[in-house]
Amino acid sequence: MRVVVVGATGNLGTSVLYSLADEPRVESVLGLARRIPNLTVPKVEWASANVVTDDLVPHLRGADAVVLLAWIIQPSRDLNRQWMINVEGSMRVAWAAKKAGVPALLYASSVGAYSPGPKDRRVDESWPTNGVSTSYYARHKAEVERRLDRFEREAPEVRVVRIRPGLVFKKEAAEGIRRLFAGPFFPRLLANPGLINFVPDIENLRSQIIHSYDVGEAFRLAIVNEEARGAFNIATEPVLDAKEIGRILNARPVPVPAQLARSGARISWMLRLQPVPEGWLDLSRNVPIMDTTRARTQLGWTPQRSAGEALLDLLEGLRTGSGLDTPPLSPATSGPFRIR
Questions:
Q1: How far is CA 304 from the centre of its chain?
Q2: Euclidean distance between CA atoms 199 and 13, whole angstroms
Q3: Over pLDDT 70: what percentage of the chain?
Q4: Of 227, 231, 11, nearest in space to 106 by CA
Q5: pTM
Q6: Which DSSP letter does residue 34 get?
Q7: pLDDT at residue 340, rounded to an integer
Q8: How far apart are CA 116 and CA 118, in angstroms?
Q9: What φ, ψ does residue 211 adopt, rounded to 5°?
């Protein structure tokens, strides 16, 4: 098999590459990215492509599967640019795959595509995917889901798989995650579990996370299983709330009013003290808890790391400044005055 991974240099893309490198049925992988990295992975060759402006068909011809991961979260103040890459760019890849005769398209969706749902029970992949209206990330994920519905009707010959993970963590992505969600003023000392004494306890803030390498494995299994179609929820146990995080970190949950936390996020974003607006808090408080039965039974997928292990892995990466030699993940991409 030959696989093309579009958006191969980020947190999830690098994990997919490593999983495919270990898969004997995959003979070669083409990693497509706007900026070619120095990272070397077995079986992987690199090419540069812009999903918004470049002709993608020549890159995709001859592939047995295309993995669509290209997505940006920053700059959070330029929603037009985000829309063009996240929504229009994603669908340009999809239609290019059809034109190139690729039989399978695998898209990295998200728990963020789901409409608000319950926190006290689990929902399967049939839960509506209309997003959370105050989150630009959720709106974009939901829009791609809607457009993929149309794509599947008009291109039934393409096997479409939608992987919907929770929050995706790994140590090697720590510097990239810090830039995207914490900003240049985040002190590494705060990532030391021994110094974390309090955890904010915000109403309805319960989240599912997953280690990036476990998501990479889900993509690998879906690629080689030609019967796999549709959506698959991907998350590990336990569900994280203030009480559970406090147990993992030996820290005490402290109640924080949701409106106060939301106002703090809004003000600090407007002052450019941190890079994400309050919609991210709305997203975390409103998305449902996912049932992962379908991925476990139909793909044979089993996460190898717990939520606690994934969280501690990320904290270690933040504390040590870990990264990979790709533009999104390299520590060299950071800078103390990079506040845009």
A1: 18
A2: 31
A3: 98
A4: 231
A5: 0.95
A6: S
A7: 45
A8: 7
A9: -75, 140
